[in-house]
Amino acid sequence: MQETASSIFLFQNDINEYNQRVRQVKQSMMELCLPVMIVNFKTYLEATGKNAVELAKKAEKVNRETGIYIGVAPQFADLKAVAEAVQIPVFAQHVDPIKPGGYTGHVLAESVEEAGAIGTLINHSEMQLKLSDIDEIVKITRQKALMSVVCANNPTISAAVASLKPDMVAIEPPELIGTGIPVSKAQPEVVSGTVQLVREVNEKVIILCGAGISHGEDVAAALKLGTQGVLVASGIVKAKDPYMIMREFAEAMKI
Length: 255
Known about the structure:
- By secondary structure, the chain is of the alpha/beta class.
- It has helices at 2-30, 50-66, 79-85, 109-115, 131-143, 155-162, 183-186, 188-201, 216-224, 234-237, 242-253, and strands spanning 36-40, 69-73, 91-92, 119-122, 147-152, 168-171, 206-210, 229-232.
- It folds into 2 domains: 1-30; 32-253, Aldolase class I (TIM Barrel, Alpha-Beta Barrel).
- It is built from 11 helices and 8 strands.
């Protein structure tokens, strides 16, 4: 009996040590080093299943070579596999404003955290939410020590969500998403206007620029307009050589 109790104690110690290491790794990944690049995998086949893992590994390689903070946001089914394969930050693409219970088909913050995510996108133009729901999700992520990256489609909405104190706000006019036409060039006043309004309500939030970014010069233009990073998707995921494009983006962020 004494031997059994001792074995259980040692086993519990192993679990505690493992959990502590997990927390340390998670904390290190959450320590932001500006500028930031987050790659949204969406539901492209080029970033599904094994492809998701391979793309994440390419992002990790660019991170190691350049020192630029790069996070990836795979589909829910790929979260765990990606998180176990790389040491760069992994984000969920969405969570719902719910607590554990009877919410079939919804996405629980605890589940993405358990899968290895250190944060989540919120209110992407392809998954828009009410402001009250955004507020609730930001509160949940804060309670769970998850990073919140809230997307917004114009300066006014960006300022509104910034007042909720998320970790990041990403400005993405939906009409430019996936077009290859960068908002930083097509609508620079949208980006500069967003930076100005957001800073009036929140001096600490990190501001990202998205929509249509497909070249290093687009990234550089976004940073010159006052943003601190980019949220990208098809420009990388559907590129013939995603590694080279990510490397180009990262190098542009070092200027």
